[in-house]
Structures are given as C-alpha cells and as structure tokens.
Design goal:
mainly alpha; flat
Length: 108
C-alpha cells in the first residue's frame, strides 16, 4: 500500500539543504580517501597532475547528490527531489567555469 502523498519532509527547501550539504561532505570524504591512498603511495606514480585530482574530486562530490535523490525517489518525495536539483545545477555551473571550459578547449 502506498503512503499518503504529503509528508512533512516533502518540501523544496529541505531538498535544497540536502543538495548543498551532500556535495560538501562528499568532497571532504573523497579528499580524505585520496590522502589516505597517497600515504600508501597508491596514486603517486599513476597521477602526478594535481588539477586532475581537484577536478575529479569535485565531480565525484557533485555526483554524490544522486544518492539522496534516489532515496527521496523511493520514499516518494518529489518536492524534496526538485530541491536537490537547484544546488546540483549551481555546482555543475561552478565546475564548468573552473574545469569544463579547459576540457572542451574553450578559452574564456
């Protein structure tokens, strides 16, 4: 049986809050794991380019928003899902400004 459509957590501002916090936590965790792997010298020879590391960590942090979106989808909270889209879009625009144009070969 499906739950009622309305929930106290099905609000856009809750999604915006989740969408802002999850990438920050994802960035911190990914940076922490990269540092641990550096201590064990796993990535030292394979990845000497620091801009690649920054770009990859930032992209993983943005993609981390997929997890709460999927959880909200399973709980049938569409307004909270819509809220996650706004900060994700802003993070993608910021990522494109810093790294995307270089990858595309566009001089800004």
């Amino acid at each position: 049986m499906r739950r009622p459509r309305y929930s106290q957590y099905d609000q856009v501002w809750i999604g915006i809050l989740i969408g802002c916090i999850v990438p920050i936590l994802g960035y911190g965790l990914t940076l922490y794991f990269y540092d641990i792997m550096d201590q064990f010298e796993i990535f030292q020879a394979a990845n000497s380019n620091s801009i690649f590391r920054e770009r990859t960590i930032a992209l993983i942090a943005i993609i981390a928003n997929v997890i709460p979106m999927q959880l909200l989808n399973r709980r049938d909270l569409p307004n909270a899902m819509r809220g996650i889209v706004f900060p994700t879009f802003i993070y993608v625009v910021i990522w494109m400004f810093f790294y995307g144009f270089e990858l595309l070969g566009i001089n800004v």
